[in-house]
Design a protein that fits this description.
This protein is mostly helical. The chain has one domain: Fumarate Reductase Cytochrome B subunit (Up-down Bundle), CATH 1.20.950. 64% of the residues lie in helices and 2% in strands. It has a two-stranded antiparallel sheet. A hairpin with a 3-residue loop joins strand 1 and strand 2. Helix 1 packs antiparallel against helix 2, helix 2 packs across helix 3 and helix 3 packs antiparallel against helix 4. It is elongated, with a radius of gyration of 19 Å. It starts with 15 loop residues before the first helix and ends in a 14-residue tail after the last helix.
Length: 189
């Protein structure tokens, strides 16, 4: 059953801007997750350096996610191929909405965690400039709450990433050959 294209979406591929945002944010998120797990048991200056990188990358993801959301409002995505069932399209839209929520909520909970810390550690963007703390008083309770939220949302993001990749591959190989190329940089000329 065919469904009408979304307003403004007459192409079969995502726009170049959407593709750049998608892959840049995806790479930063995956790198930040790997880094967080790989350095969890580190201590001293190495741990401080790793956490500085983690915080700067999280802040970058936050800014890029807000920019991507603005881009998305101005540039509609292409319609789904006709082979995608309506319930799958609803599921895909829900997953995308959850991604936006998590790409904003995870960095914000991290920012809240370091802002609420009684021992505020440096918060800067890759050593180029200092970033402000959120206007909250040092509170162990609030910091602990934000830390737990940050971790739980991180695990939710991992589950969502697995679901997203599995669904994209399922559609690519079973439903709509070439499906993943909609979000891939152009190949060749």
């Amino acid at each position: 059953m065919s469904r009408p294209p979304e307003p403004g979406a007459t192409r079969s591929r995502y726009s170049g801007g959407a593709i750049v945002f998608h892959w840049l944010i995806a790479l930063l998120i995956v790198a930040n997750l790997i880094g967080a797990f790989a350095t969890e048991d580190w201590e001293g200056p190495a741990r401080a350096a790793a956490m500085g990188l983690h915080k700067a990358t999280g802040f970058t993801v936050l800014i890029l996610s807000l920019a991507r959301g603005a881009w998305r409002l101005a540039h509609r995505p292409p319609p789904f191929p006709e082979t995608i069932r309506p319930w799958e399209a609803v599921g895909a839209r829900a997953v995308h909405g959850l991604f936006y929520l998590l790409m904003i909520a995870i960095p914000l909970t991290g920012w809240l965690m370091i802002s609420a810390s009684e021992k505020r550690r440096p918060f800067n963007w890759y050593g180029f400039f200092d970033l402000p703390y959120l206007p909250v008083q040092g509170s162990k309770g609030l910091g602990d709450f934000a830390h737990e939220g940050h971790e739980l949302l991180g695990y939710a993001l991992i589950a969502l990433l697995v679901l997203h990749v599995a669904a994209a591959l399922k559609h690519h190989f079973m439903d709509a050959p070439g499906f993943v190329w909609r979000m891939w940089p152009r190949r060749g000329a």
